[in-house]
């Protein structure tokens, strides 16, 4: 009998030991509150998420960034617990960071559409150090945000411009119609010759069917990446090269809008782009580098 009791005690001890030494389960992080928006008003107790954390407003606030103003109390990590989930695409911007950058975006501009477009230009945001990769992604998305009002506009808003974008001197003309080549997509692709060049590079017939850019998110993102990686515009280098070769964010502005904004053309617009870039590199946890203006 004593032997049986001792055996039972030993067995029970083994079970207890199993429970004692099992690793503790990790509690899942809290769900993220709606992303902080600089233009929104928050009253005391109001919640917002920013940079992987939930924050609670202590009193009335507007345009005071969580983590940089005493008005916000840190409520701890949220979503993935402060560690971004790996992206199958390898993109340096996670979906939660993308949503944080564009809290009011049009549903057309999907994160999945963007990551699906990355294969067209595999060097984008994957060249150089981790800092440079994040700077390029932030630079692209900051310019995109400026061009589209925060990824709100899919097409050019001034319809009076639409008939102007047909260069009839081109041998291929404007087969989709004279008013068919208006600005579309994240960098507002316009003109028949740009639709042809982008389509040829991407293997998509955009000359005859330019509407694909406003109907297919991946195609829209690809046209933006086409410009960013291959076109110098009114500048002297592509925006991609401006970042990876250290010329700075200011040169990306020049490549997109040249003297219309740079060299005193419109300093307020330049500053708007810079402010957005600074906000985005902060979300990605890196620094903006030098030569921000043009």
TrEMBL record:
CDD domains in the record: ChiC_BD, chitinase_GH19
Active site: 147 (proton donor)
Enzyme Commission number(s) from the entry: 3.2.1.14
Highest taxon, organism lineage: Bacteria
Annotated S-S bridges: 166-174, 262-294
UniProt signal peptide: 1-29
Record key words, sorted: Disulfide bond, Glycosidase, Hydrolase, Plant defense, Signal
One annotated GO molecular function: endochitinase activity
Keyword Signal: yes
One of the GO biological process terms: carbohydrate metabolic process
UniProt keyword Cell membrane, yes or no: no
An example Gene Ontology CC term for this record: extracellular region
InterPro entries assigned to the protein according to its UniProt record, in alphabetical order: CBM5/12 (IPR003610), CBM_sf_5/12 (IPR036573), Glyco_hydro_19 (IPR016283), Glyco_hydro_19_cat (IPR000726), Lysozyme-like_dom_sf (IPR023346)
Domain Chitin-binding type-3: 33-75
Protein name, as recorded: Chitinase
Organism from which the protein derives: Streptomyces pratensis (strain ATCC 33331 / IAF-45CD)
Lineage: Bacteria, Bacillati, Actinomycetota, Actinomycetes, Kitasatosporales
